[in-house]
Amino acid sequence: SSAETAQAISSLAELNAYDADLFEKACDLMRPDVNALPEACRQRLEAALKRVSHDPGSGFFVALARGQRDKREACPMFWRGQCKWGPKCKLSHDQDSFESSAV
Description:
This protein starts with a helix and ends with a helix. The radius of gyration is 14 Å and the shape is globular. The chain is mainly alpha-helical. Helices cover 55% and strands 0% of the residues. It contains six helices and no strands.
């Protein structure tokens, strides 16, 4: 499934086990239903792709961002680079939530 593929790719990126061909094929596999991924999974996948500087095409990142917007309060520790909870954090790590709370 796309969720399992996203988890595998994210884990590989966290281990710094990057293979451009593998990541590209995984992105191609997930492309049709990337919008159906859970929000936490999409955020982790986006962070993983950026971590290894993989560019699956701008349309893929747009599709990742099109999901439901995070309505939780922004995590101040994340923006300082100090959040130890990562995707399990109860606060938002979404750029939009940070910008709306900073205004």
